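Researcher: Next entry in the queue.
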Amino acid sequence: MDTEKHSYTLEQIPANRGLVEELYSHGKITREAREYALNLLYPHNQWGLWISRLLLTIGAALMLSGVVYLFAFNWAKITPAMKLSSIQFGIIGCLIGAYFFSLQRITGQVLLLSGSVLVGVFMAVFGQIYQTGADAYQLFMMWSLFALGWTLVSNFAVQWIFWLVITNIFIVLWWEQSALPTKEMKSMIFTYMAILNGSALALREYFTLEKAYEWLEARWTRVVLTIATLLIMLIPIVMWIGEPGRATKSVMLSGVVGLIGHGAAYYFYRYKLPDMWSLAATVLSGCIIVESVGFKIFYEMFRRTHSIMFLLMGLMTLGVFTYAIIYLRKTAKEMVAEHV
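Model: Structure for this entry, 340 residues:
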């Protein structure tokens, strides 16, 4: 049984600081080997690469912000032709720069992302000039469609996250402005958004396991998608717990979907693809659910004696999060041991 449990190939064992420290603490490698391994995994000159990328990102963000504020503060003084043509030249310039710098480099990828942002600026300016009367969801719908092609060829995780944000906003606005759901069905939006973002997370995990796209393997992409999906699933659960008597069918259905999603996330990131960051986010979301249930119970029992109610709530909070921390620390050690 134990032999089967630990039958890993070298390609399946992650090389990280935790593994090196575990080997060193058990006396399997010397101090010199430990320092050499850590220097190989985390080279000292890596900070320069990250600083250069950070400055590039900040510079691009500041330039895009400058474009937006330029139109906002000088709207009446700029002619319509100048407004549209300047943004179009900006989009074309970003695309030309992305082509010459190549999408295999961070510079070209940031330029393509900047072009995607300018598409939204162009559509907003166009709508203001000609007063199309279109609903806000149509702007984000077209923005999402126009940026989809660039996103497919970008091989850039930030571009995909940006496109997913636009698509989420489009769905929410469409639900409110066009679908016009009844009060009974209004909270179904949480189910649709959970499916969208959960599918994005599932596709990310699938392609990562298949080693199909190396640019998807960055851990932050998993963490961002996990937190976004958990947050969307958490809202209807808390709504259901807070006012169970007034909860509509859509709230209850979205709450059930959220509970199933939390269970699936815990099982997957604990046993199938162990990851402490995603597991910690899932456990934290679970703690909030437990806290909501406890608060509701104490509120109903001691609503007239606030001092006792708040005392019990505080004690419960300490107990829940203390247990969660102990559990996560224990689980982290077990995960390291399972991969050694």
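Model: The CA atoms of residues 122 and 298 lie 53 Å apart.
Researcher: Noted, moving on.
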